[in-house]
Specification:
The protein is α+β, with helices and mostly antiparallel strands. The protein has one domain: 2-Layer Sandwich (Alpha-Beta Plaits), CATH 3.30.70.100. It is built from 3 helices and 4 strands. Strands 2-3-1-4 form a 4-stranded antiparallel beta sheet, with helices on one face. A hairpin with a 5-residue loop joins strand 2 and strand 3. The N and C termini lie close together (8 Å).
Length: 101
């Protein structure tokens, strides 16, 4: 069950089609506790990011502070990261027929 949501946005100044997302997908899939990821691309602003679900807040933070921090350093980019506890919003999400509950 989903225990954490993670949102990340990276200001990369390159189109999503030029971002190495295929290579990153294989690495991201190996992350502990990852349940799903949805890629996001800013309209006409060359930002990329994603919406992730994890099995724990700890694993979401570990990913953000590990893989994503290293990726930002490698690409010399700024990232925005937000971790949300899914436990606080179970009932609200169920009422909205969320696919995660």
């Amino acid at each position: 069950m989903v225990k954490a949501f993670l949102y990340i946005e990276a200001q990369v100044s390159i189109p999503h089609t030029d971002f190495p997302w295929q290579e990153d997908n294989s690495k991201i899939r190996e992350e502990e506790g990852l349940i799903s990821k949805t890629w996001l691309s800013g309209t006409d602003n060359n930002s990329v990011g994603g919406f992730y679900t994890f099995d724990s807040v700890e694993n979401a933070k570990k990913y953000a502070n590990g893989f994503m921090a290293e990726k930002a350093k490698e690409l010399d980019i700024c990232i925005t990261t937000r971790v949300f506890s899914a436990n606080r919003f179970v009932q609200a999400n169920k009422e909205m027929n969320s696919p995660f509950y």
